[in-house]
Fold this sequence. Notes:
- The protein is of the alpha+beta class.
- It has helices at 2-36, 93-99, 110-113, 120-145, 186-196, 255-265, 295-304, 317-320, 336-348, and strands spanning 41-51, 55-56, 59-60, 62-65, 75-84, 106-109, 151-159, 174-178, 181-182, 202-208, 211-217, 220-222, 225-227, 230-237, 241-244, 276-279, 282-283, 289-290, 309-313, 329-333.
- The longest helix has 35 residues, at 2-36.
- It is globular, with a radius of gyration of 28 Å.
Amino acid sequence: MTNFDSELKPKRGLLSKILAWGATVVLVGGGLFVTLAPTPYLVEQPGPVYNVFSTVGGVPIIAVEGHESYPTTGSLNMLTVTLLGDSARGASWLNVGLAKIDPSLAIIDKADIYPPGWDDQKLNEEADVMMLDSQSNAKAAALNLLKIPFTSSIKVTQVSKSTPASKVLKAGDTLLTVDGKVATGIDQLREFVAATKGQRALKLVLSRDGVQKNISITPALIDKEWRLGIYVQEVPEFPFKINIEVGDVGGPSGGQILALAIYDKLTPGSLTGGKNIAGTGTIDPAGNIGPIGGIRQKMYGALRAGVKYFLAPDSNCDEVVGHIPDGLNVFKVHTIKDSLKAVAAIKSGNTKDLAVCTK
């Protein structure tokens, strides 16, 4: 029996080692799969928070030149989100799993962020363009609120092929007059184009590389509307410089906070009264505040930055209700005037009459 037992022990030891080694391989392989395997999802998380009264890389985020400006106190905080994963791989299964239990994270289909043909470079380029538009709109909204006059030019951003404009207009052209009238906006141009009913040429005076040109284009019926075949953009031209430096932040959602900060810098006294306030939302030149993405993550980002007051677009209320983190007070706004009212109430310490999101 002794000899028989002694022969079995090495075999049992070898079996145990094999089983242990196999378990290790399974655990390591499973861990690598969960950590590294690509998914069709991205995970959105709270990103950096920027007090727009501060600096980025030693440069003021907002600086006014050529017009009197005033010191500010407190903070107006612009919020961001960041994505885990990219166009090539998506987020890891580990991050996707964590997002299912962490309310500050959100799972997004990769296709919703990266349409066909898009990659990270394309996404960043589009975000940069949207940020520039947002800055322009924020400046316009603040100046309109202060009744400081400014002008706008109408720039051609794209010319469609095989359309009436394709042989005579180029991207970058600035429209000066339309049928003898000073070009004032996109709605005006559409009205003049429609009035021709394709029966006569529209006379345009444009500026290209500093040289004025006179051209005529007869609109064509495209998708049941009379069109020239161009895309245009209103570009405000302000009477003084308002420089905005946000580093690598992109997208349109900083509009509301940038407009409030510009307004504060151009008016005496402190808008916030030293309070720390955060907010998000697009803005147009008329001061209307629009919806944005990632508002749940931005609320958590504000709270983690020590901010107690948050201004949210009323059009995002469906995502706000039931998802406000404890300790954060969220007020809904529809226009920049609503935002000013909310900030004044926060400054006074009496916010009980401010509008909030409800079901």
